[in-house]
Amino acid sequence: xTRFAGRPLLNWAALAAAVAALIAVPEFVEIFTLMxxxxxxxMGVLALSLGFIWGYGGILSFGQTAxxxxxxxxxxxxxxNLGDSTGAIGIAxxxxxxxxAILGYFVFYGRISDxxxxxxxxxxxxxLFNVVNATAGDEYRIxxxxxxxxxxxxxxxxxxxxxxxxxVLDPTQGWYAxxxxxxxxxxxxxLLLRSPFGRIAVAVRENEVRAxxxxxDPRLIKLGVFVVGGAVAGLGGALYVNWxxxxxxxxxxxxxxxxxxxxxxxxxxxxxxxxxVGCFMIQYLDSQIGTQQTFNSNLALxxxxxxxxxxxxxxxxxTLRTLAxxxxxxxxxxxxxxxxxxxxxxxxx
Amino acid sequence: MTxxxxxxxxxxxxxxxxxxxxxxxxxxxxxxVELRCLIGPNGxxxxxxxxxxxxxxxxxxxxxxxxxxxxxGAASHEIARLGIGIKTQVPNVFNGLPVRENVWLxxxxxxxxVQAKRLVDEILEKIALTPRADDLVGQLSHGQRxxxxxxxxxxxEPDLILLDxxxxxxxxxxxxxxAEIIREINQxxxxxxxxxxxxxxxMIAKTVTVFHQxxxxxxxxxDAVMHDERVRDVYLGKKVAA
Lengths: 349, 242
Known about the structure:
The complex is a heterodimer of chains A (349) and B (242). With 349 residues, chain A is mostly helical. Helices cover 74% and strands 3% of the residues of chain A. Chain A has 13 helices and 4 strands. Residues 343-349 of chain A have low confidence and may be disordered. Chain B is α/β, with parallel strands linked by helices. Chain B is built from 10 helices and 10 strands. The model of chain B has no long low-confidence stretch (mean pLDDT 91). Chain A binds chain B through residues 1-3, 196, 199-200, 202-203, 206-207, 209-218, and chain B through 54-56, 75-77, 80-81, 85-86, 92-98, 101, 104-106, 108-109, 134-136, 139, 152, 156.
């Protein structure tokens, strides 16, 4: 397979289109739809975190919501105590990253296999859910922030202009911040994948034994990927809490953990855009199905997953790329055949 | 004057898998820039020996030292960083990545980006895969994948290269080319080559170590090994000896 020569140009065009859409969307949609898109974008960041660690690091985490939830709570607690979202967003990224580093150290340096990694991440999510759920009562406070147990934390201050707590972002600005964060994370991960670290991470995913025989420590590389995934999920958590101005233990819900896997599977594993597309698509579908009472939305989600696994196992984006690749290759093959067919005639002349 | 420290020194090396002793109390020494061939029938312990040298297996007993540094039981990446590279029996490459990326991954670890790019280009020329540099390795033939792995090992610039059946699955022309490359590499680096093809062994070997049932049967010059009755019996077979 030869790389498509026009791909860098296509990437720049896609980035320009994404930025244009980010700017244009508030002009064309109503506030409710804009808020919905803001939610999708926050979840898109979460989808990117799993798409990155699973698709490029080969790490299937069933507990990405653990980092998402930690990021959400870290933001809520920090913003209440600091009174400014600027530092709180940083804490929401840093705390899950540190947690991922500690958890990942024991998992990867303990040489725990992929199946058990899934079980451990799932268990950690459940533990966090139960721990946070049990923090009802006034004694469970971090500074000025009451954790609120199963009731969650209402009226969490939303994003303000960096360093200026008095200038709180309105819904349109919130959309710019969330959509901009999604684009920023996408570009940052794309650049990371082009860096030596990213290329080695992909090599470790491809063949761990060969990577170690070349002198790379797969445990360290996987830990690095896991930490980046944790940090990105944490940012997603902060964006999510900013969207709803509320956080509760349901942020650690196993149903959400499963849903992210569906987003990535449907959009396409091994791509960065796939998980975002899958996330937007499924969430939009979910919201539309939610408006009727004929059938359960979870049933529809399950059916979609089965259809994709059976008919498009690579996912939407890789399948579209394959089809586009064939469409581009077909004319050149035809041209080559024509040239070969014309050769005898040319030789006769 | 104290004798120079050998490049590789294994003492009383043993590898047991349950009740099976794959390598049984062997001593092995290799000098700097030496080329050694290992021969022996299947199951003699050659590949197990390689796996212990590269950290893929931890010896049940015994020691291994690389330039005096103990490496028995060390992690594969630590041993690779000390300067031991391996081409395995079955091509062990990054099938889902392009040829160039496979070689680059090895070259980049010890080189700057510019140096790594130059080294990759040189190696792709050497292994005659420049025209297929952007193709995925998984799409190449078995022989070409062998070349990719050899190129990858070379790009790591190790001081000791272990080649497990480098000529397996190659055409006669490719086999001759492989022998040429091995001799060229041996100008500056040590190699241990495991091979069954005796014609190939004759092309490259100076000293040969014969493995049999996890032990070293003999170690001598190629001619002496080829004419030894015991070697003929256990490895070449009596039919050939007759």
